[in-house]
Amino acid sequence: MSQSSTITFFNEPGKTVKSVPSITTPGKNYQYVDNGEPMRGGMKDVYFGPDKSYVVAFYRDKQDYNSRERLKKLVTQYYDSFFNREGGEYYKELYCWPTDMVETSDGKVGLVVPTYNKNFFFKQGYATSEGIKGKEKQGLWFASAKFRHPQFALRLDESELGNWLSYFQICVKIARGVKRLHAAGLAHSDLSYKNVLIDPVSKSATIIDIDGLVVPGLYPPDVIGTADFIAPEVLATKHLALRDPTRKHANRTTDLHALPVMIYLYLLYRHPLKGGKVNSLDTEQDDLLSMGEKALFIEHPTDHSNQPKMDQVSKWTLPWADVAKLPYTITGPYLKALFDQAFVTGLHDPNQRPNADQWEQALLKTTDLMQPCSNPKCQQKWFVFDNTTSPTCPFCGTPVKGTLPVLDLYFEFKPTVWRPENHRLMVYHNQYLFQWHVNRHVVRNEKLTDEQKIPVGYFTFHHNKWVFVNQKLTSLKDLTEDKEIPVNTMVDITDGKKLLLSTEEGGRVVVITMANK
Amino acid sequence: MTGEPIEAVKNGVQVMISSLRQNPQAIETAFISIITFDSEAKQVVPLTDLASFQMVDIRATGTTSLGEALKLVSTCIDNEVTKTTAEQKGDWKPLVFIMTDGIPTDDWQIGLEEFRKRKTAFTVACAAGSAADSALLKLITENVVSLDTADSQSIAKFFTWVSASIGVSSTKVEDGGQEVTGMGELPPPPAELNIVT
Across the interface, which of A192, A224, A309 has its CB nearest the CB of B173? Predict the structure, then answer.
């Protein structure tokens, strides 16, 4: 068998197993099944390996020197730096990263990519037919209001949808995936709901189509992105010549536009820039302006001209299309601030856009503000505490029953001076407390150890009062009553009470407020 | 069209609808209308969103009123494709797929004149079988696909390709902002199709 030629085996008619050599490892070959009808991506033809554990994706167009070098780096140097080091396993879940590069004897370049985990394929799919059972869960299925409307003919089965909290976890994972790429100096350049598969059931997300990765200055982007996610400055300058210095290309800051668009879509099931404002009487021109040069946030705090017009939206997009009924503020104060930064101040000023780490932290902090809805029929099941004295679920209108402890976290700014963290924990029955609440030096991110993921105690509504049961905190102290709270004992949670969670360096104080009294 | 070709077209439309119904982008954005033309042109399905689309029996026997069909598609575009106004966003320009296995039997030029006044994102004409005149179709659009034989397999391939061209994918970096209206924007057709150039 010569290494450089494509070897062909014939099995059954119409189905041929071919073999193609690796570029990076001499002597290594990959088999793939060619039935004459590959799956067609935007730029690649995709063939399964015989056992379907990987695919070989061939570029239809000839790849130039730069592109080949970039792909080679992707499967060697970048692969190693992402996965073959401590914590690398975590990232394997977040990306579908090519593992090798191949080339046929006639110069066709391809990538070997692992097949997606089986939870990224629909178990059930549509509620009323088999139509998409077994198909990939590309993000758009979950980013559109239609597919979750209980009367829409092609709606997804409830068992596929997850609840509102699931999408926070999914967005955290996407943000982490983007954060890690950016930390390595790379940009994805084509983040979209097509290139991120999500699974609300297992609350996971995986970034695919990694091969478009851009290294600023070194490898230029070959796509401007996917409609709906292209940054305004890229669209506004796409008419310019490729080498025009004022033309804007996909890079890290355009990823930082696509990321919040995706987060907004997954949490609110509408597009942040697609509103009612008409910018040109020519439809295509209008589209270009509305997403580009004249892009305007549909929930801009002062300019309401792009708010969706309720008499023009499809009934299947309700209630989500109604920004008066479900404003973006239902995502809570931390995300509201970041959405403002991304879609108001940073929309046309790329350097103002929040980075992926900020999104990750804001999403995580927001989950601390979430309450389960007491209505078993509520579609979303969870909502963010709205800071009112009598909170209700914004989705189904069910009011919260009984009192609601709110814990505000403080850190020691200097001896005896404590300052607010701008971090609040809403308590619900059987809510857990973790190390990252107790100590400000423990950051809640993908680097947490298993030990740090074990709760240190829990809150419970017991004999008609709220209590905290201490399981692991060795220096918990009730400052109001000046009393130590040893492990395996509990402390009453009452209005105005102050608790010192830990005497260690970085240990926090919480101040309790009772809401919904 | 009779016999195998028309059955293949019916099947092709069916397959196309079911494949589009598995594509969330298409369900979000695409509306479909079907016009048949034989001794007369008829809109058998008005512009309908994919989720509510119901297939009807397609019949096309006898003559080939291509001119009438072009006139009718023009009227339908006027009536059913929402135009952008100062108050309301309109629809995108329509994609028009014309399929024929014969030579027009009516005054197709008048119809073409009307059709040319309408803006389409792209128009693809498909000449199915040896009796169709691809040179004539070239006058309607530069995008002409010719199927050597109007058998079920090649017609099915054509519809697979049509379905793929309706999906959305990443936009490649292009040099300069020329609006691309030719085949360059479509996914490459399968090998069995011959693009007439």
Answer: A224
Of A241, A280, A283, the CB nearest to B91: A283
The pLDDT of residue A140 is 93
Quick check: A187 and A214 in contact, CB under 8 A? yes
Class of the A7-115 domain? alpha beta
- Pick the more confident residue, A318 or A389: A318
Could you report the per-residue pLDDT of A8-32, keeping only the tens digit for each? Answer: 444 455 568 999 999 999 999 999 9
Strand A54-59 versus strand A44-48 pairing type: antiparallel
CA distances from residue A21 to A8, A24, A36, A57 in whole angstroms, order as listed: 12, 9, 20, 13
Sites in chain B below the pLDDT cut of 70: 1-2, 149-151, 164-197
Report the run of H or E that residue A366 belongs to, with start and end: helix A356-367
Number of domains in chain B: 1
- Is A138 within 8 Å of B24 when comparing Cβ atoms? yes
Are residues A222 and B172, on separate chains, in Cβ contact within 8 Å? Answer: yes
Closest by CA position to A209, among listed B19, B23, B28, B169: B169
> Contacts of residue A45 in chain B, CB cutoff 8 Å?
none
Closest by Cβ to A283, choosing from B51, B93, B169: B93
Are the beta carbons of B88 and A240 separated by less than 8 Å?
Answer: no
The CATH classification of domain A402-515, taken from the options 2.60.200.20, 3.40.50.2000, 1.10.760.10, 2.60.40.10: 2.60.200.20
pLDDT digits (tens, 9 = 90+) for A175-232: 999 999 999 888 998 899 888 999 999 999 999 988 877 776 666 676 778 889 999 9
CB–CB contacts below 8 A, A to B = 106
| A241/B24 Cβ within 8 A | no
Q: What is the ipTM of this complex?
A: 0.81
